[in-house]
Amino acid sequence: MSQRLFQAYVMVDWSAASKPATGADSIWIGVLKRNVRFQMAFESHNPPTRAEAERMLESVLEDLRRKRERVLVGFDFPLGFPRGTATALKLGEPAWRTMLDFIAKEVKDKPDNTNNRFQVAARMNRLMTGEAFPFWGAPARDTQTMLSAKRVREHREGDLPEFRLAEEAIKGPSPIWKLYYQGSVGGQTLTGLPIVKRLHEKRAAKLWPFETGWKPLTPPELSDAEAVFGEIYPSMFAAKAAAGGVKDEAQVRAACEHFNALDEKGQLGALFGPTKDDSRRSVIEGEEGWILGAPA
Fold first, then answer.
1. DSSP structure class, residue 288
2. Structural domain tally of the chain?
3. What tens digit of pLDDT does each residue of 227-250 get?
4. Is the model's pTM score more than 0.90?
5. For residue 155, what are the contacts with CB-CB under 8 A and spacing of at least 6?
């Protein structure tokens, strides 16, 4: 009996682009799965819109479900917000789920990638603080009273944290509050979470670490799961694009191959959380989430 956790790996490099785009800085989906000869083979997809990306993911996951092959799906944006965000919005518990529901209800994303992420962030700022904080970053046409082009001030004592615990652990990602410019993970989160929610609801998938616990995972614990969805940070994986290739594609490939290699050796399960009790556990499992492979 194989001790593998997964038989396939799907890694997603997301984009909050407001119009269709392909190539660098667009959506890349990497898929590593068994081919007809039962060898692991990689394929990549570069859908120009989020709507097409959702259909592509739906198709890949449905194919794996039919084959009864469990899949690890990694998204390169947070699946949870910094501690205290749900409370600041006066949402209920568990915070990760009420935030997911809130974002999915508020964000409108059209088939041509036109979306209202800046308006949603401005509304969240108004509800959370009554000022253009903590979300920031927008093109001139989308700035408004509650959302400025640049950061209005530093985070202070008593504010929502600028970074989640996972980001502090690897010191690299931009804060979720950054909506625009290079590395604007906030826009990716707002446009990505509604799709994560829909994909999750259509199948027996577990959202890590919220539904699995922040702890090492074993095959028996996933026996009833078709998929595990988690957060990845592709820059953690050394990836060099081939001549004429795109770095984003190289990164999703490297992430797929990295997790597959660990799984092959029976070492992937340990990445899903610390073995001993940890004072951060309730925050990570209840609201913030964690980055797969970040040092715990």
1. I
2. 1
3. 999 999 988 887 787 777 889 999
4. yes
5. 134, 161, 162
